[in-house]
Design a protein that fits this description.
Elements (H helix, E strand, L loop, with lengths): L4 H25 L7 H12 L8 H34 L11 H14 L6 H29 L8 H25 L1 H7 L12 H20 L1 H7 L3 H6 L4 H23 L5 H10 L6 H25 L8 H20 L4
Helix pairs in contact: 1-2, 1-3, 1-13, 2-3, 3-8, 3-11, 3-12, 3-13, 4-5, 4-6, 4-11, 5-6, 5-11, 6-7, 8-11, 12-13
Length: 345
Amino acid sequence: MPSSPTRGALLFGLLPLALLLTAGLAALALGARPVPLTTTATTLQAMLAGEGVPAGVDAAAVASRVPRTLTAALVGAALAVAGAALQGATRNPLGDPGLLGLSAGASLATAIGLALGVSGSTFWVLALAAAGTLAAALLVYAVAAAASRGAGAGGAPTPIGLVLAGAAVTAGAGAVTTALLVLSPVVRDRFRFWAVGTVARADLGEAALLTPVIGLGIVLALAAARGLDALALGDDLAHGLGARPGRTRALLLAAVVLLTAAAVALAGPVGFVGLVVPHALRRLRPGGTRTLLIGSALWGAVLLVAADLLGRLVIAPAEIHLGVTTVLLGVPVLLVLLRRTGLGS
């Protein structure tokens, strides 16, 4: 049964927003050097007012954590919405930008571009990542569809077929990316930390430039929400209800490309966020796809801000990269979903 409007507003809006603010404040205050909350609040207030960073080591520590906290929130929102959109567009419960090879494609395209001498500016990294995401999406779909036809199951890719094709693309793209890291000093210097998925070297300017891109991707996904509700019933029924499945999928593909490319450009390939968050929220019975997408954006941001903070605290003063933390969270969820989906589906 769908949640009531009041319950939906609480679970998919107010609660995650409150948790995001709390987690963000904790991420600014805690780390290898804990900072009092009063100092954290004063520093943040001064920065927001354009007064700069107050003097002192504690204030400097807070200021250094602002870019990575903001970036973690943006990346979490982008990947969670991209995952929800992929799952709806393909009717595949295993849809996730990392699992289906899209993040690996974005990483490979960026590495190839840098190896060929393309500028490493934010614009070009985003453009390369978008091209790689789109190419990987088309390749995975084509391979899975061909496998489905070869097995006599028609032309529609099965969920397992998409996952296997995504795994193959991820492995191939990862191997080439690793080779470029070894052979090209330019690529190695730019991506040796970024390639594992991290916000440790986040830059506030890059986050500001890519925020509108992520915002546009979320808006496109929300614009396709009504058509996505109809797609859940099948293409034939969707046509009968006046929906346009082709247009809906085109909007969702554009949204997924923008969101995945921006997330990869900011933090590298961070996996499983788009798998874990939408599936967890569906258990709370959202009233519709629009509610699910909004909740995914907020809860995805909460998840990555909390995961980044956890990675900084567990073995402080060293840290566990964000990409490793999300894998530890996501693999058990994937195993459960594979068991429920069944290898023959």
